[in-house]
Design brief:
Length: 916
């Protein structure tokens, strides 16, 4: 098929005027649609061949220029000819916004200004309307305005969005004098008199946009257009530069003195890369998709040609490149802001307003140093400060922390240009390492200063192991940030804990922090705990090796270094134990305590665990996780303190019964003895005092009312969970039915305790993660889930059908691949076999697993459910029907094979957040 050109399309209309607008559109639109399609196909082919995003965007913009001109000429020639136009029958068609820059993404809007001499006439109104109808018929998203020159000037003076749009106005065709008049007046009457206002408005607009899209440039699903470090940030820089420096083209920024030639090359490289990603996104999705989601990252990485290397997959290497570009955009932003401050065009910053407790000076030298206070910021006293003494590259940030002042962008630029000075000599310099350790363990704002070091490139050069994880993402749904950003945020959380913030969310760590003796070791361990991510070996073990190497270099004692290495090696132990083990089983606590060994380590590990989880991302920390960690801490504290943990089971049961009896003063002795005899010893040992009292009353009331299948529920706002208690005749598929009903009703199970009475009744407690902040909303949801469980247990609904209704209907390739694993261990519990199952999460997975366990004739004593993004880790404490552990190798092999088959049956289903 030959390539259509605008002149060919116009020729195809014929010489005879087509006076009917409908007829004209019917003749014109099909050819224009083909012209658009051919242009997009050619642009995509060019992008895949050359991998140049800017060339693609410019090609699409040029094609759109031809299309708009073709539409205009067809309308004027056939519908509204003006052989002798009056002074009012003049029109200039102008591209504005992104289209005005001469770049257009495949799914972008087409912004047009129809410029008039003074007021709209019948002719110009008809022409504009006819053009728009054609463009709309082509399904183009058209942003348009019809204004006179006077209108434009008046509205630009009052509206910052219109002002910005006109800043990038580009003449397409029509009356050139109109356009020239507009640009001259706009420059003289608007731009020349309002630079500070424009800069302030654009920077505030940027802050609001970034906050909406996600405050960090290191979010693992970034917004390419509006996110921090995205294209809009580059646009904002250029808008400000055009406004303040009165330049027309980006290349003029060097001549204006805003950028060095190398910095402008960086600007151009960032712009091209972001345009490349954006164009690929639009082509792949067929729409104006700006968010680089997980399912798209792999596709874009393949289209760009990113392949796996050095322990990173192709998609992880692509995203690392993306985040490095986002960082570079941030550096350019700092450069522009510094220049603007020099011109008094924007407000000066402070290091951190929350910690602005130090008295500052506007300027002056700092005694005995190569640094000065320059307009309330730390700056170097001369260009040779780092060459003369490379330790100053670390001292710069130490001074910023000590004086609680931001660093002057000129100093940051000089530091970045001086990175070659950071070699083995500086890395092993005792003074440099002392200063760094002071920064890391500062009681001011270490997170802020470390981030400045990282953005300047100093941190990664000074600690090469940290440099390996800069901008590194982990391709999963659990981690919200890049590895380096996660580590810096962990330090921030640790500082918050030490200063007593958020005590209501994690009271125990706030309480124990003052008694910690190894504060320096704790800060170093938090900083290093994920430093070995992305390596072939286990990152905890590899991280411990790195810690043993860096500890002495930082100036830590041998004991401190050993503590840091131990914490890094075991930084996941407390979280995994708390969330996936039965904390009421003495074997769990004993095993954990044997690894921890001392109270000091227990305190350090708890604080590190809280900081780690809280820094993963929004919504990851929950009150339920906090409660589990506190329970594990207190149970282990008793063991490490030499408490009476070996008390005879019979004695512990007796004490539990006595506590419950005291809670039920209105019960007769006969009633209580009869109730107590119904429970096995495990019930008294595993349930807490409050739950035992609530369940006793619940069972008594249910039996008085004659209900054999019933439920009750209560919310716990602090823990962020809702507890459902189920009373029902016991049978092997009971837990499967409960989990299926929860899945069908949208209940996300995080824990389960299962008990059977001596008379064959099941008393099960199901813990659901909270879905609503308001108790009344959460209770309504809990009631819906509870009723669903009752109906399922009474046989009023077929649970398999309900669960199937929640499964994905449309099959597609998976974004994530999590190989399923099943481990069977008899050493983790003294009475049950522990089965741990991990694999790709999906709706109804827990129901399928409990159904499989029921068919295997296994009794489930407790279940512990953890989800790490797309990965599910479900742990079941089970026995055979005889109440004994599963020890036979053949039986274990059957269990393992059956559970793995659960994952094979759904291999083509897409990953979603599961309901149970």
């Amino acid at each position: 098929m030959s390539t259509l050109l605008p002149e060919t399309i116009l020729k195809n209309l014929g010489d005879e005027p087509l006076r009917d607008p409908t007829l004209l559109r019917s003749r014109l639109v099909p050819d224009l649609k083909l012209y658009l399609d051919q242009g997009r196909e050619a642009a995509e082919a060019q992008l895949l061949r050359t991998q140049n995003g800017l060339d693609c965007a410019r090609y699409l913009s040029a094609r759109m220029d031809g299309l708009v001109r073709c539409v205009h000429d067809a309308v004027v020639r056939h519908l509204y000819p003006a052989a002798n136009p009056s002074s009012g029958e003049r029109l200039a068609v102008v591209a504005t916004g992104g289209y005005g820059r001469g770049t257009l993404a495949p799914g972008s809007d087409v912004d047009l200004l129809f410029l008039l001499p003074y007021k709209q006439t019948a002719w110009s109104e008809s022409v504009v309307e006819a053009m728009l109808y054609v463009l709309w018929d082509l399904k183009l998203k058209v942003g348009h305005a019809t204004r006179s020159v006077e209108d434009c000037i008046r509205e630009a003076g009052a509206d910052m969005t219109i002002r910005t749009s006109l800043l990038e106005a580009r003449f397409l065709f029509g009356d050139r004098d109109l356009y020239d008049t507009l640009t001259v007046r706009f420059d003289a009457e608007i731009v020349a008199t309002s630079a500070p206002d424009f800069v302030d408005a654009k920077l505030k607009e940027r802050d609001a946009r970034v906050a909406k899209a996600g405050a960090s440039r290191y979010l693992v699903e970034p917004n390419v257009k509006d996110g921090k470090g995205g294209l809009r940030d580059l646009n904002t820089l250029f808008w400000i530069a055009k406004y303040v420096y009165r330049v027309r083209e980006p290349e003029e920024l060097v001549k204006a003195g805003l950028f060095t030639p190398d910095e402008f090359k960086l600007f151009a490289r960032c712009e091209e890369f972001l345009w490349r990603v954006r164009c690929h996104l639009h082509f792949v999705t067929g729409r104006a998709e700006e968010r680089l989601t997980f399912d798209l990252q792999r596709v874009i990485a393949e289209r760009i040609g990113s392949t796996g290397r050095s322990g990173l997959s192709g998609v992880e290497r692509f995203m690392k490149s993306y985040f490095r570009i986002a960082k570079d955009v941030g550096d350019l932003t700092a450069i522009v802001c510094a220049e603007l401050e020099g011109r008094q065009a924007k407000r000066r910053p402070v290091l951190d307003r929350m910690f602005g407790r130090f008295r500052r000076r506007r300027g002056g030298a700092l005694t005995g140093s190569d640094f000065i206070i320059d307009n309330d910021r730390i700056n170097v006293s001369g260009e040779t400060a780092f060459v003369r003494d490379p330790v100053n590259l670390i001292r710069l940030f130490w001074m910023a922390d000590r004086h609680n002042l931001p660093i002057h962008p000129d100093a940051t630029r000089l530091a970045t240009r001086s990175l070659s000075l950071i070699g083995p000599g500086l890395r092993n310099d005792p003074e440099a390492n002392r200063l760094f350790l002071d920064i890391l363990t500062s009681k001011n704002v270490p997170e802020v200063v470390l981030r400045r070091m990282n953005e300047a490139g100093v941190l990664g050069r000074f600690i090469p192991d940290f440099g390996r994880i800069v901008a590194m993402m982990q391709f999963n749904m659990y981690h919200h940030y890049t590895v380096d950003e996660h580590l810096l945020r962990s330090i921030g959380v640790l500082t918050e804990i030490e200063t007593g913030q958020y005590g209501h969310e994690h009271p125990l760590v706030n309480q124990i922090f003052p008694s910690i003796q190894n504060r320096r070791a704790l800060y170093v361990a938090v900083f290093l705990h994920d430093i070995a991510k992305g390596r072939p070996q286990d990152h905890s073990e590899a991280g411990a090796v790195i810690a043993r190497k860096l500890g002495p270099r930082f100036g830590l004692t041998k004991a401190e270094t050993n503590t840091v290495a131990w914490l890094v090696e075991h930084h996941l132990l407390m979280s995994n134990t708390a969330q996936s083990r039965d904390l009421s089983d003495p074997a769990t606590i004993k095993s954990f305590a044997e690894v921890v060994q001392t109270m000091e380590r227990l305190k350090l590990l708890l604080v590190l665990t809280v900081a780690d989880i809280r820094a993963v991302g929004p919504g990851v920390w929950t009150g339920w996780k906090g409660q589990l960690l506190r329970n594990l801490y207190h149970e282990t504290e008793v063991v490490l303190g030499g408490g009476a943990t070996d008390m005879a089971r019979s004695e512990r049961v007796r004490l539990a019964q006595e506590q419950l009896r005291a809670e039920l003063p209105d019960w007769t002795e006969g009633e209580f003895e009869s109730y107590a005899a119904r429970h096995m010893p495990a019930y008294w040992l595993k349930t807490d005092e409050t739950r035992r009292a609530k369940q006793a009353r619940f069972v008594r009331e249910s039996e008085k009312a004659g209900r054999t299948v019933t439920t009750c529920f209560a919310t716990d706002h602090f823990r962020g969970v809702t507890e459902l208690t189920v009373l029902s005749p016991d049978h092997p598929r009971l837990l499967a039915i409960i989990t299926g009903a929860c899945a069908a009703a949208g209940g996300n199970i995080v824990d389960a305790q299962i008990f059977t009475t001596t008379d064959g009744m099941a008393l099960d407690t199901i813990v659901l993660s909270r879905a609503f902040d308001r108790d009344e909303d959460e209770l309504r949801r809990a009631e819906r889930v509870a009723k669903g469980i009752e109906r399922a247990l009474k046989g009023e609904v077929k649970i398999a059908d309900l669960v199937d209704g929640k499964r994905p209907v449309k099959e597609r390739s998976r974004t994530f691949h999590v190989p399923p694993e099943v481990s069977i261990d008899n050493s983790l519990s003294s009475r049950q076999t522990v089965i741990e199952i991990s694999g790709l999460d999906r709706p109804g997975l827990l129901y399928d697993l409990t159904t499989a366990l029921g068919k295997l004739n296994l009794n489930i004593a407790s279940a512990h459910i953890v989800t790490f993004g797309e990965k599910a880790v479900d742990v079941f404490y089970v026995t055979d029907l005889t109440g004994t552990k599963v020890t036979h190798a053949g039986r274990q092999a059957t269990i393992r094979r059956t559970l793995l088959d659960v994952f094979k049956s759904e291999e083509s289903a897409p990953p979603q957040r599961r309901s149970a």
